[in-house]
Amino acid sequence: MNAGKSTYLLQVAHNYNENGRDVALFTSSLYMQDGVGVISSRIGLKREVPTYDESTDFFALLEQTDAACVLIDEAQFLTPAQVRQLHRCAHLHNVPVMCFGIRSDFRGEPFPGSAALLVLADHLEEIKTICRCGKKATMNIRTTAQGERIREGEQIQIESSIYRQVCARCFYD
Amino acid sequence: MNAGKSTYLLQVAHNYNENGRDVALFTSSLYMQDGVGVISSRIGLKREVPTYDESTDFFALLEQTDAACVLIDEAQFLTPAQVRQLHRCAHLHNVPVMCFGIRSDFRGEPFPGSAALLVLADHLEEIKTICRCGKKATMNIRTTAQGERIREGEQIQIESSIYRQVCARCFYD
Amino acid sequence: MNAGKSTYLLQVAHNYNENGRDVALFTSSLYMQDGVGVISSRIGLKREVPTYDESTDFFALLEQTDAACVLIDEAQFLTPAQVRQLHRCAHLHNVPVMCFGIRSDFRGEPFPGSAALLVLADHLEEIKTICRCGKKATMNIRTTAQGERIREGEQIQIESSIYRQVCARCFYD
Amino acid sequence: MNAGKSTYLLQVAHNYNENGRDVALFTSSLYMQDGVGVISSRIGLKREVPTYDESTDFFALLEQTDAACVLIDEAQFLTPAQVRQLHRCAHLHNVPVMCFGIRSDFRGEPFPGSAALLVLADHLEEIKTICRCGKKATMNIRTTAQGERIREGEQIQIESSIYRQVCARCFYD
User: Fold this and answer.
1) What are phi and psi of C87, to 5 degrees?
2) What ipTM was assigned to the predicted interfaces of this complex?
């Protein structure tokens, strides 16, 4: 369910590494395969990384980091408190923190972590993809395996769900 | 307490009007002078406009609008439900809606309306201003008339308060 | 002939001045009224400023400036050599330089100064306005007083000319 | 010599293809391997594509295209006339055209094609990478195999040259 954000994240990590600099990568513990966190991109890129969950204290974790940059995938699952930790970290320890995620869930409701990131971030950047109708996709929907839209349910459901990115007009139709 | 967002809003309205097109302008009912809503800019621009409060139903209000564009100032005071109305309006009635506001309050906490706007908006644009230290200001603080920082209190307090825009580092210091 | 860029420039100057900081403002010597350079905005703002012409050496001029920021209006009339001076200035003397101008002339041809700015600038920002058709205006046309389009002539003609901002589709039609 | 622009281009193509839509991809004829155009990314992605050279007439070529999007890599080698063809194409045939390239050469001088693109494009987007010093890289330098900087020579030299992206301060030092 993405526009290439994991591709972009892995490219940024690659740029730093090519310059001889370390990066600290994290993904959500919801994205584990065989017990290991994995950032993977549908275009074929993949990297094993540490995971975070709601108990992770980023301020403590990054206090003495040597990383030139912190990159967090699936950042919509951060808690607002963790977003605040990362924000303090960026400004008090002076380490760039880049968080990649989606803004709203399949009902168009905010992820609390995404809302917190959008409110505090110094720079906001959009990774664009298209809706089937050709317009810019800004939202997403949950479907059955047969492509039928599901309008109600839990905010987070990864394993058995299929997501599709859509524009706002198609979302409301 | 702004970086020129009211100036920018009034300039956009002016551009539309110069092209012979009407715009629908609103500000929060908290910004009334002598019972009339006023959008004013410290650089010297000023325009009387209708106000909205939490009971305003934008979807109904704009259903039959002739306006070429809807412009809302002090949009941090919108409710999340109103943001949803405006979003549906933009995409189902096809009228551009531009909302101008600040992201976080004097404690660094989100305004619910701003969080909702940031999560749903098709385009996000930043109006930049500077902190006294010279860095980009992304947050704001509340002070006494003597310039002393106030760290606790109600989220919304307009009349007797003084605000100053600061960068995140100065915010945390 | 603008989308509000002079408004935006004067607002930035105002923000710096309100923070107790000086700015160095310039406009082209083509924009003099009674021998004095003037930055003015159709919405009603106005400020007298020094002018530059093609003989101005910005690197020498700004070497010992106390200004916290350099703001240049009608920057399409800079020479590519002046753009290079300003670029060196920004990076070797560490003073922010913001240039405001239009990209192409009434034939859709680049202004040499604008092309040089777009190629070297660290940050590019678009000030948006609309075409009469409602789309985003990215180009401009020259017309007679009666509104008839003029397709040939000198690149620079200020006094007796009328300009209108249009989208690319209307430009080519 | 890139920040991931080929990665980004191939990701956009992938997004369109996943939505069941064709894209028209091109790279410069300077980027042929064994007689075939190749877009490749240091992170490991690769795709064979048609090439363009200075004799290509894009307006004729794309007049009857079924492609949902045109993607051009190494777009700094376009001629200004080709940029104009692509611009007309985008606005008269209504097909999105995305061009990926670098702005300036190893001497800080514009590529004529890049200057033309920057002047006419409807949307400008920056793909960021970092200088060895940690700042944002906006320029590039040519070096010997031993890493020694070369300051003079032809604008275009691909085979035997090594390039490195640098920030403007390091460029001028």
Assistant:
1) -65, -45
2) 0.94
